[in-house]
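Suppose you are handed only these lines of text.
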Amino acid sequence: MADATSYEELGLANTKEMFQKAMDGGYAIPAYNFNNMEQLQGIILGCVQSNSPVILQVSGSARKYANPKMLRFMAAGAVQMARAEGSEIPIALHLDHGDSFELAKSCIDSGFSSVMLDGSHHPFEENARITRQVVDYAHEKGVTVEGELGVLAGVEDEVSHEVSHYTKPEEVEEFVAKTGVDSLAISIGTSHGAYKFKVGPGEEVPPLRFDILDEIEKRVPGFPIVLHGASAVIPRYIEMINRYGGKMDDAVGIPEEQLRKAAASAVCKINIDSDGRLAMTAVIRQIFAENPAEFDPRKYLGPARDELIEMVKQKNENVLGSAGKA
Ligand code: G3H
Ligand code: 13P
Ligand code: ZN
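From them, the structure of the protein bound to 1,3-dihydroxyacetonephosphate can be written out as follows.
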């Protein structure tokens, strides 16, 4: 295969049609992060079995981890695997939190169908300038682009922020017009990772700022919005991790009810990484605790993959509403 590859050659789809259908249908497309083969298989099989469109996403560091040369063959393999299962679900390969034009270009040239340029830590004009540069290159090749306005607390790849800054609705129209992005990630109270809120005893998790989302929808009607940091931090997995030797006492995520509400709105893409990590870790910890002599990776990665399949199906069916929509 030539060094430069188009996403069509790999059997991938961009996000345009996926988002249009999600907007019309009042559901959200799942965007699951992966770094390795078992995660990729788990995500694909979960989406095949629930007949859901899917965005496979990798951060810059995940791409390095998997190896950029290998990654596109993994994505092509994932498409082949879905087709061999008799499924025609649309599959996108997306760069998550791209931090430079060079990285976005390299991904586009190696077969990504969608890229994010996250310039949210830059001042508005600089963010718009780099994002526009990526859009110009990407659109020539049919690749879709996600931008970001507003800052999420937590770790965004190598960039980490102590506090979040909500998206300013009055900036959204100008940003979308200036950059030509296909979708926009916003900050309304989610954050990355497994520790999203500090909740004291008897306290509730603070609700997401749906008032900001409503205001954004009014300013750019019908425009696809993306929600990052949207893991529920599923309590069952936290309990299992803690029971089998882990230590994640204060982990807390976004209540599923709020994610359902977001999925029914202009939010067309919901990003989930931490929940997949927790599902696999919980199962691996249980197996190691109960079978200390086990050392065949298939015996712990296999069940971890099976758990991920179930988690993905559950999300698609009961939270995002994407099941049956492929
Ligand atoms: O938003 C960040 C994602 O969860 C990716 O995390 O940089 O550790 O791959 P990562
Ligand atoms: P979580 O850490 O909540 O899974 O968020 C993932 C994400 O936003 C990836 O871009
Ligand atoms: Zn993110």
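What can we learn from it? DSSP finds twelve helices and ten strands in the chain. The chain has a mean pLDDT of 96.
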